[in-house]
Amino acid sequence: MTTAAAQAPDGRKGRGSGAMAVAQRVGRSLMLPIATLPAAALMVRLGYEDMLGREGLPAVVNRIAEFLAAGGGALLDNLPLLFAVGIAVGFARRADGSTGLAAVVGYLVFRQVMAVFDDPGLPPVEGEPQPADAGVLGGVVMGIVTALLYQRYHRKKLPDWLGFFGGRRLVPILASFAGLGLGIVFGYVWPVLGAAIHGLGEWLVGSGALGAGVFGVANRALIPVGMHHLLNSFPWFQAGSYEDDGVRYQGDIARFLHGDPTAGQFMTGFFPIMMFALPAACLAMYHCARPERRKAVGGMMFSIALTAFVTGVTEPIEFAFVFVAPALYAVHAVLTGASMALSWALGARDGFGFSAGAIDFLLNLGIASRPWLLVLLGLCFAGVYYVVFRFAILRFDLPTPGREPEDPEEPGKEAAEEDRARYRA
Q1: Are 99 and 74 spatial neighbours (Cβ–Cβ below 8 Å)?
Q2: HEC profile for the chain?
Q3: d(Cα 377, Cα 342) in Å, to the nearest integer?
Q4: Name one GO molecular function term (predicted).
Q5: What residues have CB less than 8 Å from 394, skipping those under 6 apart?
């Protein structure tokens, strides 16, 4: 074997490990904005009209509900901006305040330029077309672009007569032009993607359990790029029609909350996954963490598992493994589809006003059909998730939380071998 031939595999391995390292950096940087989601979810849920905002409660309690709803809504409404800033700061090496400022500048330009375009995939509001909006995907893209611009140009020196704009001050300027260019590109491309996703939603409505299952897979598959909200818009807010006391309601959510016995097709199967299966995945990741890091990982996993169970907010769990184990995330998407199809086929009917967590589950017991069947299904899926996640993490040495190599020069080979030996035993 020649020297070149001997070195080729190492080069390929280096490129592969480099790509994985970049994916891990993106995943870690996403956790910063994602950390705001539990707070937003709790504030919004407590501020809903069926909670602290319910009629009959003291006026001061209703007023507090308004404050909570406004505070949580501020975070959820600006999630793309939070992603742009969080990813830029988390992804760029030696980031500082100018990195976050550049991300804000770039994303604001990107969003407003894209809003010049109409989105034909969304229904008009009062006769006016809705503007194109890339949502969280736009924030992720601008965050990464800003981080790359910062790393390349934050020490760039300009001629003396432009010296004031050199270095860190140059990055926000470049980010604004990057936002301009990307906004134009996305503006032309996004309506095509949006129309395709909207067409898929129309097909799903008429497909029964199969449609529910396909929707579940697509919903989870689109979460990493932030496009699931566009997919959700048709089945949740437009699909079907139901009249009650002369009032016509459209969309799976509104129809269910107003007593339509045929509603819930695109919500029911999320309860077993969000309340039971993904918390079980957290338990598997905790058990697979390095012994010396298990305590720290346990605290994080407990908090995000509890958030998923109570509120139905699962992004903190899913982003903990989507980039380091995309194949495992694909399995998760398929199992979510299986839960959606099975729940609907067995006659369970449930829904939510916010998400498929324990709060909505308990609040809607009176209008749900066979809700306790979802608990049984959830326990079954929890067992499946625990076994699948534990097997995959140990068998393929996946760097889930608590298993990341601490020293880049020595990426935990001995620990990995011990894990494999324990698995074989």
Answers
A1: no
A2: CCHHHHHHHHHHHHHHHHHHHHHHHHHHHHHHHHCCHHHHHHHHHHCCCCCCCCCCCCHHHHHHHHHHHHHHHHHHHCHHHHHHHHHHHHHCCCCCHHHHHHHHHHHHHHHHHHCCCECCCCCCECCECCECCCCHHHHHHHHHHHHHHHHHHCCCCCCHHHHHHCHHHHHHHHHHHHHHHHHHHHHHHHHHHHHHHHHHHHHHHCCHHHHHHHHHHHHHHHHHHCCHHHHHHHHHHCCCEEEECCEEEECHHHHHHCCCCCCCCCCCCHHHHHHHHHHHHHHHHHHHCCHHHHHHHHHHHHHHHHHHHHHCCCHHHHCCCCCCCHHHHHHHHHHHHHHHHHHHHCCCECCCCCCCCHHHHHHCHHHCECHHHHHHHHHHHHHHHHHHHHHHHHHCCCCCCCCCCCECCECCHHHHHHHHHHHHC
A3: 9
A4: protein-phosphocysteine-sugar phosphotransferase activity
A5: 288, 419, 420, 422, 423
Instruction: Give the orientation angle of helix 136-153 with respect to helix 79-91, to 10 degrees.
Output: 30
**For each of the chain's 425 residues, which pLDDT tens digit applies?**
444 444 444 544 455 556 656 666 666 676 677 667 667 767 776 777 767 888 888 889 999 989 988 887 787 678 789 889 988 888 877 777 888 899 999 999 999 999 999 877 666 777 788 788 877 778 888 999 999 998 888 777 777 776 677 777 888 999 999 999 999 999 998 877 767 756 665 676 778 899 899 999 999 998 887 667 667 767 877 676 677 666 667 678 778 877 788 888 889 999 999 999 999 999 999 999 888 888 888 888 998 999 899 988 888 899 888 888 888 999 999 999 999 999 999 999 998 877 899 988 987 787 788 999 999 999 999 999 999 999 999 998 888 888 876 644 444 445 545 555 554 54
Domain ranges in the chain?
Answer: 206-425
Across the strands, what pairs with 250? 241
- The tokens for 379 are 């326990």
